[in-house]
Amino acid sequence: MKSLRSSLALFLIVAIFGAYIYFNERGPIADSGAVVLLRTDPQNVQQITLTQDTGPLTLKKEGAIWKVQRDKSSFAVPADDSAVQNLLKDLQLLQSPQALDDDPKNRKDFGLEKPLASLQMANAKIEFGKEPSFDATKVYARVSADSKTQVALLPDSLKTAAIRPFADWRDKAILRVSADNAKSISVKAPAITANFDKSKAGEESTSSEWQVTNPVNAKADAGIIESLLTQLTNTLAPKFFDDNPKSLKDWGLEKPQAQIAIETADGPRSLLVGKKTAGGYAAKNSLSPAVFEVPESLFGLLNRPLRDWRDKKVLEVETDNLQTVTVTFKGATKTFNQTEKKWREVGAKVDDSATGKEAADAINHAVMDLIFALQGLEAQDFADNQKSDMLNKPWVQIKLDNTSLTIAEKEKLLAQVNRNSLLILPLSARDSLQKPLDKLFAMQ
To answer: pTM for this structure?
Structure first.
């Protein structure tokens, strides 16, 4: 009996595994009783030729990229991948409740005597006729595959794809790049020359971390960088000037005004921005020789000073893990420890009276207010080349466990975290810290 149960269990596992492979390898499941006209594996399709009234148009796969070409004399340019994938999805399974014989006598009635358009891939061909009077969502089509030709009603979306013009097939994104795949970035424009490296990849809903590696070593604003990468993909070229220019010099691209180079998991990607045009700037990317127009706002995104790319947050404070806060202010130093979610001054006498408890609560709240103010500090600018001796007479020094912050005021409000570059704080930062500091050092 045990042997029988084991055999049945093994049979069930094999059956489930076999069914999974069968249906996933073969793609979508045909409707019950339907006639299957064509099955296609999108992974195996390398080229699709669309014959339109304006002439042939070819979609072809080059490596991982789909390109579109008007005719043999024109240049192939990147295609809109989402449009190609939608077409491939529609071609996975062509089925019809019934199929008609390809009778020449009926071709005129179906609009197939002179097809409006056709689609061909490998040994399969689909020719499109007219819509039936009873259903505007369908189209008569002649499907030739596996040495068999059948006429049937197919979704009108297939004919729409077949007659889609070249301009609608081409990829208009100025540079397709995924923020997740980007590993390093270099930007060069009149206001900036800098390099950035991804120091830590994001996990689930968390953002990645980016570092400025040149001309300084500092934390970059990940939000700014990932927003730019998204903008590059989402910004569509409003105009294409030349698909295969003879000279980049004519477009100011031999010595571009701005450029961005991105190393990705899929290989390098770059965008060059050249001379001013009526609607923006001439540009080209590394995926094609085509010259197109980018909006003026895109040039502005690249041509920002380094301070706009840097992380302006002064301190990362994890309050749950913080144990000790030491503050030097007005010539005095006080240390506070966190015990059982309460901040207490080290060395202070324990007073269990109502007045003592009230004073202890006031200290706890003042330390929490100070930490909250520190969490909100953001640099207004950076003073990388200034000397740290300007902090010899600080206004306040604060140490959070192993992280120290020194703030001094000399014409500007300057700050330094550990021994890093100097930061310029807004004057409002002093106001946010002043109140909790005064409370702490007024309590003796």
So the answer is: 0.80
